[in-house]
TrEMBL record:
MF annotations from Gene Ontology: 4 iron, 4 sulfur cluster binding; electron transfer activity; metal ion binding; oxidoreductase activity, acting on the aldehyde or oxo group of donors, iron-sulfur protein as acceptor
Source organism phylogeny: unclassified sequences, metagenomes, ecological metagenomes
Domain Aldehyde ferredoxin oxidoreductase N-terminal residues, every copy: 1-91
Protein name, per record: Aldehyde ferredoxin oxidoreductase N-terminal domain-containing protein
SMART domains: AFOR_N
SUPFAM superfamilies: Aldehyde ferredoxin oxidoreductase, C-terminal domains (SSF48310), Aldehyde ferredoxin oxidoreductase, N-terminal domain (SSF56228)
């Protein structure tokens, strides 16, 4: 009945007190755990205040910028008073068939050079311009497939303006992950990484926003609070469409002018959702439940399948996605079926 975290080291498991960590954002908490354990190499999967507050789309953060993002796993941990899982190992990993693993790695390296080069140079944000020009970039709560000013939020724009470092997941040669830094008008800490394509579209184009610095700040906030950026962006864009159609008023929003394109409003809503305050308390339930409570036709603006908000892939553009979403046990899950032609056009090794 009290907050705890789990520490796993070389096969030994301890349950440790986390009362002093409860309420901390992810960076603060990770630093505190590493200091407490006396080892900066400890790896931590943890929740932020959103998970503690049982936001329905709270996520689990790993190393501050990698998320188990969908389906509300952060809320599950929060409901169990589990703040974090910290791991440290000194043993080698054994492979049943190391030759096969090496062969798979070589096949990926040799057969996806074009895709990997673009990912290395511009990260997953390399597709922003491509999708926009093809009419497949979710915009204004999926009302449109392209946005004016898209050049301001592309991977190229990020590289030319706020990017400070590239890095990779473990042992990956591509280095598609970004680190960004902003000093004004917002302060963005590069330790939270940088926005991926999904976040750029969810907090950017789908909210009618083309301010890359604001999107980077939103990215930092969702990682600090521990929120799935996809569902969070969809909840905000849903509220924006409701606001513009008179289903939500300034009284409902607490005076926030929740129109598409208002970057300040987007950032305010992230914090309200994480803290479950004001309109954020309603949106924290997800768009399906929020639409039911608003009523008056709000369901038309609540884009979800099986209760999970749509990710930033346009099913009317990538037509196979619709079928995948319907049969997926988690609903609107773009990882359930393969839809990226750079990889699917190749003959799979397996």
């Amino acid at each position: 009945d009290k907050p705890v975290y789990i520490f796993i080291q070389d096969g030994q498991v301890e349950i440790k007190n986390a009362q002093h960590l409860w309420g901390m954002k992810t960076l603060e908490c990770q630093n505190a755990i590493c200091e407490e354990l006396g080892d900066k190499n400890v790896k931590v999967a943890l929740i932020g205040p959103a998970g503690e507050n049982l936001v329905s789309f709270a996520c689990v953060l790993n190393d501050l910028d990698a998320a188990a993002g969908r389906t509300g796993m952060g809320a599950v941990m929060g409901s169990k008073n589990l703040k974090a899982i910290a791991c440290r190992g000194h043993q080698r990993l054994s492979l049943a068939n190391p030759e096969a693993v090496s062969a798979i790695g070589r096949w990926i390296r040799d057969n996806t050079p074009v895709a990997n080069k673009g990912m290395q140079d511009f990260g997953t944000a390399r597709v922003v311009k491509i999708l926009n020009d093809a009419g497949g970039l979710p915009t204004r709560n999926f009302q449109l497939g392209s946005i004016d000013g898209v050049d301001d939020i592309t991977g190229q724009a990020m590289t030319n303006t706020i990017l400070v470092k590239r890095r990779s997941c473990f042992a990956c040669p591509v280095q598609c992950k970004r680190e960004v830094k902003v000093d004004e008008p917002y302060t963005v800490d590069p330790r939270y990484g940088g926005p991926e394509y999904e976040t750029i579209a969810a907090l950017g184009s789908n909210c009618g926003i083309t301010d890359l610095k604001a999107i980077a700040k939103g990215h930092e906030m969702v990682n600090a609070y521990g929120i799935d950026s996809i569902s969070c962006g969809m909840a905000i864009s849903f509220a924006m469409e409701c606001f513009e159609n008179g289903l939500l008023t300034l009284e409902d929003t607490g005076g926030i002018d929740l129109r598409f394109g208002n970057a300040t409003a987007m950032l305010q809503m992230i914090e309200l959702i994480a803290r479950r305050e004001g309109l954020g308390a309603l949106l924290a339930k997800g768009v399906a439940q929020a639409a039911k409570e608003i009523g008056r036709g709000a369901e038309e603006f609540a884009l979800h399948i099986k209760g999970q908000e749509l990710p930033m892939h346009e099913p009317r553009f990538k037509q196979g996605l619709g079928v995948g979403y319907v049969v997926s046990s988690t609903g609107a899950d773009h990882c359930h079926n393969i839809h990226d032609s750079a990889y699917t056009s190749l003959t799979p090794l397996l």
